[in-house]
Amino acid sequence: HWEKHGTCAATVEPLNSQKKYFGKTLELYEKLDLNSCLLKVGIKPGNTSYQMTAIKEALTSVYGVTPKIQCLSPEEGEEVQTIGQIEFCLTKELTLRNCTDSNDSSYSGQKDLHFRTEELSVCNDTLTYYPAEVQFHK
Questions:
Q1: Cα angle value 128/130/133 (rounded, 5°)
Q2: pLDDT digits (tens, 9 = 90+) for 43-93
Q3: What is the bridge-based pairing of β-strands 127-129 and 81-90?
Q4: Phi, psi of 113 (to 5 degrees)
Q5: Tens digits of residue pLDDT in 4-22
Q6: Residue 111 forms beta bridges with which residues?
Q7: A GO BP term, please (predicted)?
Q8: β 96-97/134-137 pair status
Q9: Taking the domains of the chain in order of start, what are their residue ranges?
């Protein structure tokens, strides 16, 4: 991940070494605590599916910003999409910002299924499965 994302992040002083970069990533992981925050508003990872609008509203209410959510399309004959990646976007000062704003900086939460990026697309406002064991990376 350092070669892919870290070399760009190195232009920002708090991220300008591998040690700082991964240290800040762990700090953000603990600060965002996605599963715990969503549990507080009734969104539970596992076998339950939710309307995507409810997940978006919950994330916005908890974090105060609009994240970018990408899904894996339903299997043929099924109706429920699966969240594959949730991105929280950051300013150069490393504060959360809306992902709808134009800037490429983001911090991703990706389900531990190793989806290829090309398999993911913007989620539809339909029934959505929120898988357990979300991992964060960047």
A1: 160
A2: 888 878 999 999 999 999 999 999 999 998 888 878 899 998 888 888 888
A3: parallel
A4: -120, 0
A5: 455 556 667 767 677 777 8
A6: 134
A7: RNA catabolic process
A8: unpaired
A9: 34-137
